Amino acid sequence: MLRWSVPQVLANYTGGKIMRIFPKVFKTAMEKAQLPLSEMARVAGVSARQIRYWEKKGYITSHQAQKNQNHKFNFFSLLKVMEIKEFLDEGYTLQAAVEKQRERQNILRSVRRLINERLLGVEEVAAYQEGVEINLGPLDNDETKIVVAQVKAGQPVKLILKKHQPMD
């Protein structure tokens, strides 16, 4: 049986680098990488005219180094355009698609927060047939028990309560 804390798992996954900075590094890279309008339109599967309109309406933003230069878009804008297009393809109006995209972003922020605040450790369990147990921490109303997610390939994820045993 193998047992790791989250920092150990992340360090093993990344060759020993401290992963607390990874989200910041990833975010910086996503913000700094710049796509021209034509590439943004091609990748997202929308017209350049649509992107200009969405930018004018304030749904997405671009960067322009100097006046009269082409607008450049970061990867966050690309993802936003692709999500809006997905909702448009499902039949939503533009305004509704933008709102659905914002709702999705709020959900993702909440999931990131859950992971950051509650993911306390990962344990590989041989008896669990090549699965892992993810320690989600103690119950707020009973710190003698922890919530554990059991994850096994091809099976639904199970949430169980276990007696709290500090990790070595």
Automatic annotation (TrEMBL):
GO biological process: regulation of DNA-templated transcription
Residue stretches making up the HTH merR-type domain: 35-104
MF-aspect GO terms: DNA binding
Domain of life according to the entry: Bacteria
InterPro entries: DNA-bd_dom_put_sf, MerR-type_HTH_dom
SUPFAM superfamilies: Putative DNA-binding domain
Protein name per its UniProtKB record: HTH merR-type domain-containing protein
Organism: Limosilactobacillus ingluviei
